[in-house]
Amino acid sequence: MIKIAVCGALGKMGQEVCQAVTDCEYTELTAKIDIASEGMYHTIEEANRVEDIDVLIDFTQPKSIYENALYCLNNGIKIVIGTTGLTDVQIEELKNLSQEKNTGCLIAPNFSTGAVLMMMFSKLAAKYFDNAEIIELHHNQKKDAPSGTAIKTANLMAEAKSDFAKGNCAEVETIEGSRGGTSYANIHIHSVRMPGYIASQEVIFGSSGQIMTIRHDSMDRKCYMQGVLLAVKHVCENNDFTYGLENIL
Hints:
Layout: E1 2-7, H1 12-23, E2 27-33, H2 44-50, E3 55-58, H3 62-74, E4 78-81, H4 88-101, E5 105-107, H5 113-126, E6 131-138, H6 148-158, E7 181-182, E8 188-193, E9 199-207, E10 210-218, H7 225-237, E11 241-243
Parallel strand pairs: 1-2, 1-3, 3-4, 4-5, 5-11, 6-8
Antiparallel strand pairs: 6-9, 7-8, 9-10
Helix pairs in contact: 3-4, 5-6
């Protein structure tokens, strides 16, 4: 049995992860961790002193994930990270530390297989279009913007082409930010935060005379659990660093 600790256990994703780990035949939930809890461990350090932990699954907050990951890798705990908000520099540092400590680390901006396919299809389509923008839509309790999924999608598309604003005129924003943020390869990302959404994303490609849209919608957080358990199995079998669920599908 793989002994699992869940950090952020009281959150909506954390609760789903705890249930999925409990229901899975090859995992055992040994520790629930949440800083705001009563009757649970408040920190990873506290849980690690008492419980055996093979893998920590983290669905916490952008402000805490980097320190959580550093602690795990420095203490021989493999980690699966679903929390978004890590910078490119932090991801590179965690990659180096994972390799140095020979401890598995998997970071996935999205654990939904459908969302991962959406990103893969977008990378494929990027070769054939000179213009593209991304609209991501999440619930209004998501603190980071743009989403990790949108950033990862833009990153993958940029591997295929260096500029997705070909032929655009010089722009003037009469309201600052109305054109969204400019990311890799000049891809504009627009973030919507609204109650009612869980997670949705549209990647819009355009060329003369045609528009193509690739869209994915998550309606229930259960759709992420298959990917989470797949990630747990991967880090247990491989002491490597992986960024993106698409690399283990």
